[in-house]
Structure formats: structure tokens, C-alpha cells
Amino acid sequence: MVDTEITLPAIDMGKARDPDLRREVARQLVHALETVGFVFIENVVGFEPHTLLDKARWFFSLPDAQKQEVARKLWNPLSKNHYRGYFPLQEGEVSYKEGYEIGREVPENTQHMPDDLQVHPFFQEPNMWPGSAEGGEQFRTQLLTHYNAALQCGAEVLRLVSLGSGLKDDWFQSLFFPNSLSTLRLLHYPPRPGVVSPTARDGETVLCCSDHSDSGLYL
């Protein structure tokens, strides 16, 4: 197999906010997606990578018992959530990781949910926060800030793709908004202890993720 080095095109969202440069940035984005398939997004309003990394480290450093308090129902029988929350490391799995997911804030009493949240109730669960841990409130504030920043960035990317494709810039909006199912996921891939399971190998290569297909728009 021949290794091929690919340079990801960078899309500057700051330039996209300039009316004189916006259309050209949109064309660059569409060209990059058509030719390379991936892009690097720069100058995202509200995105602070060091802050987000700091909060991810804080969460995954919590004692297992505290992480378990916000685990999904599959790992925490007391939880009502099937989708949002924490999932632990699983021995023998190809993808050796633990993670934590949040989405749009919804009321815990689903009887009083806004009508638009009734569309996909399975995915519109209340977020589960590690409130008992010191620093939990700051964690919640920062994750919601970055969730909203990513959501707005995603909406802007859709507008630019529409514009760069010669369409009205709101052409894709109805597919994702206002009933967005957007998820912010934190992931932690620790070193594998001991002997690596055969299911996590492809010959001599240790796999980090199994073959799969993603859906929707990923940022």
C-alpha cells in the first residue's frame, strides 16, 4: 500500500463573515468538499479548543462512581436516558474509548416539552450533568457554550455550501433546523492495557475504530 499525504484545505469562517469575501469562501468550501472531501474550519466564533480540552480532561478524570451517575441506562439502571450521557470503556471492543454526550437542553418533565421537541423524543432526552462533582457547574456552562458554537458553525457551513452550489443560502436549513438533533461528544481513548483482543486487530495494526458509516453533518 502506498501512503498518500493529503493536505486539508482550510476554510476561514472569519472571511466568510465579510460580505465581500463570502461568496468566494463558499466556492472554496464546495470545491474542497468535492475534491478532498474534508476541510479544516478556522476562526469559529465561541470555540476555545484549550478550554474544551481542559473540561474533557476534568470529566474523564472523575472517579468512576461519579461518571457512573451520568451514565446511560445500558450501564446505569437508574438512568432514564438511552442516548445522552456517559458510556464507559468496554473490554474487547474494537473501539476502546469512553465518552460523554450532550445535546439541546430540554426540560426533564417531558409532559411540558415544546411541540418541536416531540418530533424525535428518543433523541431529545434531558442532558445528564455531573452536578455532584466540584467544578460541575463550570463544566456544564462551557459545554453548552461550545455546543451552541458548534451548532451555529454547522448552520453557517450549510449556508456556505448552499451559496457555493449556486442555491439560496437557506436551501439546507429545513433539513436540520429548527428540530436539530445535534450532539456534542467528548471522547477519551486511553492506552489499551495488557494483550490487545484479536477483534481489535487488523493483522499487526491495532484498530481504534471499527468500520462504520456516519450520518448527518459532522464537525
UniProtKB/TrEMBL annotation:
Please provide, alphabetically and separated by semicolons, the GO molecular function terms listed in this UniProt record: metal ion binding; oxidoreductase activity
Q: Which Pfam families match?
A: DIOX_N
SUPFAM superfamilies, per this entry? Clavaminate synthase-like
Asked if the record carries the keyword Iron, the reply is yes
- Which terms are listed as keywords in the entry? Iron, Metal-binding, Oxidoreductase
UniProt domain Non-haem dioxygenase N-terminal: residue ranges: 8-130
Q: Which portions of this protein are annotated as coiled-coil regions?
A: none
Superkingdom per UniProt:
Eukaryota
Q: Which InterPro entries match?
A: DIOX_N (IPR026992), IPNS-like_sf (IPR027443)
Entries under PANTHER family matching the protein: FI07970P-RELATED, OXIDOREDUCTASE, 2OG-FE II OXYGENASE FAMILY PROTEIN
Q: What is this protein called?
A: Non-haem dioxygenase N-terminal domain-containing protein
The protein's organism comes out as Batillaria attramentaria
